[in-house]
Design a protein that fits this description.
Distance between the termini: 13 Å
Largest sheet: 5 strands, mixed
CATH class of the largest domain: Alpha Beta
CATH architecture of the largest domain: 3-Layer(aba) Sandwich
CATH topology of the largest domain: D-Maltodextrin-Binding Protein, domain 2
Order of helices and strands: EEHEEHEHEHHEEHEHEHEHEEHHHH
Number of strands: 13
Number of helices: 13
Helix content: 25-40%
Strand order of the largest sheet: 10-9-11-8-12
Shape: globular
Strand content: 15-25%
Mean pLDDT: 88
Radius of gyration: 20 Å
Low-confidence stretches: 1-37, 39-44
């Protein structure tokens, strides 16, 4: 099977992709059944990269947030740790950001994927974040370990930052809006609606960054709060003029939304595997190797394609996660 990053192509100068090309290029076959809640991996019995590693006897509880990208990443972690022989409890789809962070700190889970921008601003309470992903992750890694005994392991190339997308028929003189163009449009059209998830207006890495950069404060009359998944479909249906999105979400292409061009307003969100230091210390070299091999191939195109397979093509999260790992030689078929 050819590299998954070839299944999508850029369209115009923003990150829009051709759904038809994606549909023609992806042909995933459903793999073995999904992981159970409590299971033990094969560990060392196969030819895959992770089967050569040793997590035998180590108990791992994996959580994740409740949107597609996190579900895919969470299932990848479950399958990867099982392949290395760990006893894995699957708590993927645990809830939102604070639910997972609280569960990690309390020991309810001991692993979940998290983003460097969220760690720096939300969990650690810092102000302005570095615009360099390596610098930002290093700073989060150092502080969270010192303050909370939480390890940040690995770092993805992909940056799934917050953004906005306009409805399919709404463009700015035939081109996608810029952030400033969006602000100007909202100021000139008081009936226009921006749909957002509930936490976005209050997050330090959320709406305030758009408002500070553009000089336009979106009034309550132009805000509509919706569940994350509904934002995409309501924007596609024209009930929202603009919707808050994650920029690697496959539904942007699948629903023909127009991604608003961001010159660097929103903060970086490269993912790492966050885990309790008490777990990490049991096999640090193994956890580092799994994180590096798992995350290093996940650039923006690849992560967007995996999300597309779930949200648009309707493949199961576990099948998509498993097939990617098999294709990369990380787990056995």
């Amino acid at each position: 099977m050819s590299s998954i990053r070839k299944i999508i192509m850029s369209r115009k100068k923003n990150i829009r992709y051709s759904a038809l090309i994606v549909l023609a290029a992806i042909g995933l076959v459903a793999a073995a059944c999904g992981s159970s809640n409590d299971s033990e991996g094969a560990g060392g019995g196969g030819d895959s990269a992770f089967a050569q590693l040793d997590l035998a006897g180590i108990d791992i509880t994996v959580g994740s947030k409740d949107f597609t990208e996190q579900l895919v990443l969470g299932e990848m972690l479950v399958l990867s740790y099982q392949e290395a022989g760990a006893n894995v409890t699957n708590r993927v789809d645990l809830g939102g950001t604070e639910v997972n962070r609280t569960a990690l700190l309390s020991g309810e889970i001991n692993v979940y994927p998290e983003y460097n921008g969220t760690g720096w601003l939300v969990h650690l309470g810092n102000d302005e974040a570095s615009t360099d992903p390596d610098t930002l992750t290093a700073a989060v890694r150092e502080q969270d370990l010192a303050d909370n005994a939480i390890r940040w392991v690995g770092q993805s190339p992909f940056n799934d930052t917050y953004g906005f997308a306009s409805r399919p028929d709404l463009l700015d003189n035939g081109e996608p809006f810029t952030m400033q163009g969006m602000a100007d449009y909202l100021a000139a059209n008081p009936d226009a609606l921006v749909c957002m998830e509930s936490e976005f207006p209050d997050r330090p890495d959320g709406l305030i960054l758009f408002e500070n950069a553009t000089g336009y404060t979106i009034p309550g009359s132009q805000q509509q709060i919706l569940d994350t998944g509904i934002i995409y479909t309501e924007t596609a249906a024209g009930n929202c003029d603009f919707g808050e999105v994650f920029t690697t979400d496959g539904r942007i292409a699948g629903l023909d939304l127009n991604l608003v061009d961001d010159p660097g307003i929103m903060i970086l969100y490269n993912v790492s595997i966050t885990m309790a230091d008490s777990l990490y210390s049991q096999a640090p070299d193994v956890f580092e190797e799994i994180a590096d091999k798992l995350l290093s191939g996940l650039d923006n195109e690849t992560m967007t394609a995996l999300n597309f397979e779930v949200d648009i093509e309707g493949n199961s999260v576990t099948d998509v996660a498993r097939q990617y790992l098999v294709d990369q030689g990380l787990i056995s078929a």
